[in-house]
């Protein structure tokens, strides 16, 4: 590879996530059905904290299922932090937002002001994370948003995507990334 095509060196916590570390357990989750069952079960077992970061949180069967599990966790005293992209989450009904917040879920939006009239390059930055971290010991990463990927109107079903359930040393870095993103966003957009 010549210097001109060499990828940029990742910065911050991401740099630490690029090294190989042994001692992990990984499970491939194919599609939303497997993913939502896995995260719902993880939320039910949570005792300390849950971090959820997603581009979309839909008010559909999958979204309501996730919301209910998050609210049950918050009712047990688990700290629940949900961060949704301001553009991807713009259709999330205010009633669902308020229901989550009243139940004790700390729900925030990344770059919540979305205007098609503002074409500043910095406004195009979005939160495309699909990250879940439960108690710092179980994580999920992949391409699945909080939306029913099998029955979304206007799309040819199904839209297949994957996530990976992760246990092991990388969870410390994933939790640090989730917390760092949460802190940066809540300082900026609250």
List the keywords:
190 residues; alpha/beta; Endonuclease, Chain A; globular; disordered N terminus
Topology:
Blueprint: H1 13-16, E1 25-30, H2 31-45, E2 49-54, H3 61-75, E3 79-85, H4 94-102, E4 105-110, E5 131-134, E6 138-142, E7 162-167, H5 170-189
Parallel strand pairs: 2-3, 3-4
Antiparallel strand pairs: 1-7, 2-5, 5-6, 6-7
Low-pLDDT residue spans = 1-10
Mean pLDDT: 85
- CATH superfamily caption: Endonuclease Chain A
Assigned CATH architecture? 2-Layer Sandwich
Instruction: Write down the CATH topology.
Output: Endonuclease, Chain A
Largest sheet: 7 strands, mixed
Q: Radius of gyration, rounded? A: 17 Å
Number of domains: 1
Count of helical regions: 5
End-to-end gap: 44 Å
Structural class: alpha/beta
CATH class: Alpha Beta
Strand order of the largest sheet: 1-7-6-5-2-3-4
Oligomerization state: single chain
Helix-strand topology string: HEHEHEHEEEEH
- The tally of beta strands, per DSSP, is 7
Bin the helical content: 25-40%
Strand content: 15-25%
Shape: globular
Walk me through the structure.
With 190 residues, this protein is an alpha/beta fold. The chain has one domain (24-189): 2-Layer Sandwich (Endonuclease, Chain A). It is built from 5 helices and 7 strands. The chain has helices at residues 13-16, 31-45, 61-75, 94-102, 170-189; strands at residues 25-30, 49-54, 79-85, 105-110, 131-134, 138-142, 162-167. Strands 1-7-6-5-2-3-4 form a 7-stranded mixed beta sheet, sandwiched between helices. A hairpin with a 3-residue loop joins β5 (131-134) and β6. α2 runs parallel beside α3. It is globular. The N and C termini lie far apart (44 Å).
């Amino acid at each position: 590879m010549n210097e001109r095509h060499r990828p940029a060196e990742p910065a911050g916590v991401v740099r630490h996530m690029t090294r190989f570390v042994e001692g992990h357990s990984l499970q491939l989750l194919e599609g939303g059905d497997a993913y939502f069952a896995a995260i719902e079960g993880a939320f039910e077992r949570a005792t300390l904290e849950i971090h959820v970061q997603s581009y979309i949180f839909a008010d559909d069967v999958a979204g309501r299922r996730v919301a209910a599990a998050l609210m049950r966790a918050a009712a047990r005293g688990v700290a629940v932090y949900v961060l949704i992209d301001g553009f991807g989450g713009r259709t999330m009904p205010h009633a669902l937002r308020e229901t989550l917040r009243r139940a004790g879920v700390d729900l925030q939006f990344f770059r919540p002001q979305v205007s098609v009239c503002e074409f500043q390059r910095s406004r195009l930055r979005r939160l495309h994370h699909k990250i879940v971290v439960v108690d710092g010991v179980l994580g999920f990463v992949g391409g699945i948003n909080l939306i029913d990927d099998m029955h979304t109107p206007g799309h040819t079903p199904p839209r297949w995507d994957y996530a990976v359930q992760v246990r092991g040393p990388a969870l410390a870095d994933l939790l640090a990334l989730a917390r760092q993103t949460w802190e940066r966003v809540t300082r900026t957009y609250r």
